[in-house]
């Protein structure tokens, strides 16, 4: 009996689209063939063949091309012949079984051909031939590496093979190709022959940069900017990057990647941008923007130390929080010592005026303030100080040597110290040294400059002091209340907005939340005290906010006898 052997060939033509909207012609095609025949012999695309004897289905090949998944699964019968071949491409199945071909729907274009030989009872051989289009990329590999001989030398053949393997199945991905060529060029260095040639050979264009930036193959990872025109440079920070043209820096205060000369850099203060030549003025100082920095006149106002609860601002403007409810030396000089003692709820102020003589104590005067009852109808002269009620909220002490001390008595005790304009000797204590340099404000009682506020403050404690003021919120409900209510400080359209251009709100906002959420039961009082501290700071620069208490309902909640906005005259 003569059996007619029939060969069936299904060929799926190849079409490649490169980039968007255009087809390219295959200039060079390389064929790779995988075969299986007999009862289980498999000859892979590359390498030696092997034998698999099984009637279970298994995958003959699976790959992805141009983001389309391809899968060919085969199954042999007990006779050893193939009884089923399933070709899946882009989720469309074509099944060869029982001498028939079943295609679920219209076939897609496929960069391979499948050839099989049918015999009675099944298929005795199956060929899968892949047509891998290189678009002359293998030629590009060889041309590229012809310029790297001085660099790679005997390793060149290995890298050519690596180049071709890198391209395989990623023929249309310029990113895959160009990343490979770029790494080799970087490996050879900017003085190599291939450095100047590789983009032209491979047609790998330079990446595009946003705005005014230009691409640099080897540049500093940290781009010079208006905020940092001279960043630190390290050879390890060299990378491919986008930089400003020579002589310009990035305006990192703008959003459009604009490059400007350093003299044209804007300035920023309290979130507001100022152009070169713009001015900002306060009661104490005038400043002009000059190339990203501020040129300011000498501060005509004397430094002031603020002790507002546990929150301290030094004479030179450094802010911190004391760690414990203890007694501290707030400030001391040649002829004065001021101690501040914190109790469980409030702070008590103790002022000690010593003799004017540096070598002999001839007189000592004490003034002690604990609560409002101790100063009822109190207004008189001491030998070296005048003590009087400045208003129903403030008691003031003016010394004969020019120091001014203001005590806020309601709703919470707070202390404001203005040192004498002309003083001799060293000032020290929690309030710092009043030398217009914040870097040494944390000078301890032993003369060591501390890096953090806690050891500094503890060194100025009178007697033993244990840190016991929580640095974070300890009550979740209070924290939610504080987050909501303290946000009024940052409102760009709110009652405090007028001062935003003079005093940043960030540290006052943080203090407001911490003070309020750890307040206990009288949250509104603590909130209003914190808001009032920002209002006082604004008033000290001549910025009058208007009736902030009414706008924040602080008059209503505190039922204060006097409810008026702070003015510079009050301070």
UniProtKB/TrEMBL annotation:
Read off the InterPro entries from this record: Mucin_vWF_Thrombospondin_sf (IPR050780), Ser_inhib-like_sf (IPR036084), VWF/SSPO/ZAN-like_Cys-rich_dom (IPR014853), VWF_type-D (IPR001846)
What are the UniProt keywords, alphabetically?
Disulfide bond, Glycoprotein, Signal
Task: List, for all copies, the residue spans of the domain called VWFD.
Answer: 303-474
Pfam families with a match to the protein in the record:
C8 (PF08742), VWD (PF00094)
Coiled coil start-end: none
Note whether Signal occurs among the keywords: yes
GO cellular component terms given for this protein: extracellular matrix; extracellular space
Residue span of the signal peptide, if any? 1-21
Q: Which CDD domains match?
A: TIL
Protein known as: VWFD domain-containing protein
């Amino acid at each position: 009996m003569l059996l007619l052997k029939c060969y069936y060939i299904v060929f799926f033509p190849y079409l490649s689209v490169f980039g968007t909207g255009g087809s390219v012609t295959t200039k060079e095609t390389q064929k790779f063939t995988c075969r299986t025949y007999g009862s289980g012999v498999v000859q892979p695309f590359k390498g030696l063949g092997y034998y698999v004897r099984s009637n279970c289905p298994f995958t003959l090949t699976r790959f992805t091309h141009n983001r389309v998944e391809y899968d060919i699964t085969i199954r042999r019968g007990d006779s050893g012949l193939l009884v089923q071949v399933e070709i899946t491409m882009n989720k469309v199945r074509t099944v060869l079984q029982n001498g028939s071909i079943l295609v679920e729907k219209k076939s897609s274009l496929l960069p391979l051909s499948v050839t099989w030989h049918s015999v009675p009872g099944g298929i005795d051989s199956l060929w899968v031939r892949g047509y891998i289009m290189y678009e002359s990329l293998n030629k590009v590999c060889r041309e590229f590496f012809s310029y790297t001989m001085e660099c790679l030398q005997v390793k060149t053949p290995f890298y050519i093979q690596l180049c071709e393997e890198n391209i395989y199945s990623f023929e249309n991905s310029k990113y895959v190709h160009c990343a490979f060529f770029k790494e080799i060029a970087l490996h050879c260095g900017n003085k190599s022959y291939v450095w100047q040639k590789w983009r032209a050979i491979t047609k790998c264009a330079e990446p595009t940069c946003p705005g005014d930036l230009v691409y640099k193959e080897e540049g500093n990872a940290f781009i010079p900017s208006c905020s940092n025109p001279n960043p630190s440079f390290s050879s390890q920070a060299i990378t491919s990057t986008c930089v400003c043209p020579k002589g310009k820096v990035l305006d990192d205060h703008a959003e459009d990647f604009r490059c400007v000369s350093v003299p044209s850099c804007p300035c920023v203060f309290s979130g507001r941008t100022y152009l070169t030549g713009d001015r900002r003025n306060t009661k104490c100082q005038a400043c002009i923007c000059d190339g990203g920095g501020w040129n300011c006149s000498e501060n005509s106002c004397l430094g002031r130390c603020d002790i507002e609860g546990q929150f301290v601002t030094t004479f030179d403007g450094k802010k911190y929080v004391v760690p414990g409810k203890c007694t501290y030396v707030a400030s001391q000089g040649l002829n004065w010592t001021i101690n501040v003692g914190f109790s469980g709820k409030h702070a008590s102020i103790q002022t000690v005026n010593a003799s004017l003589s540096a070598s002999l104590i001839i007189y000592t005067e004490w003034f002690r303030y604990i609560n409002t009852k101790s100063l009822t109808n109190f207004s008189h002269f001491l030998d070296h100080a005048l003590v009087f009620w400045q208003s129903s909220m403030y008691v003031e002490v003016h010394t004969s040597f020019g120091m001014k001390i203001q005590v806020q008595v309601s709703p919470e005790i707070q202390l404001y110290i203005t040192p004498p304009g002309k003083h001799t000797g060293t000032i020290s204590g929690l309030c710092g040294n009043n030398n217009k340099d914040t870097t040494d404000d944390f000078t301890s009682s032993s003369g060591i400059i501390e890096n953090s506020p806690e050891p500094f403050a503890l060194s100025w404690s009178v007697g033993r002091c244990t840190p016991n003021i929580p640095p974070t919120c300890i009550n979740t409900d209070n924290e939610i209340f504080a987050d909501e209510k303290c946000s009024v400080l940052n409102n760009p359209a709110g009652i405090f907005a007028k001062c935003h251009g003079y005093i940043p709100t960030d540290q006052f906002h943080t203090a407001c939340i911490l003070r309020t959420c750890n307040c206990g039961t009288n949250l509104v009082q603590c909130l209003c005290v914190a808001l009032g501290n920002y209002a006082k700071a604004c008033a000290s620069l001549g910025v009058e906010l208007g009736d902030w208490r009414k706008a924040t309902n602080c008059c209503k909640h505190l039922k204060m006898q006097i409810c008026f906005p702070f003015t510079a005259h009050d301070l």
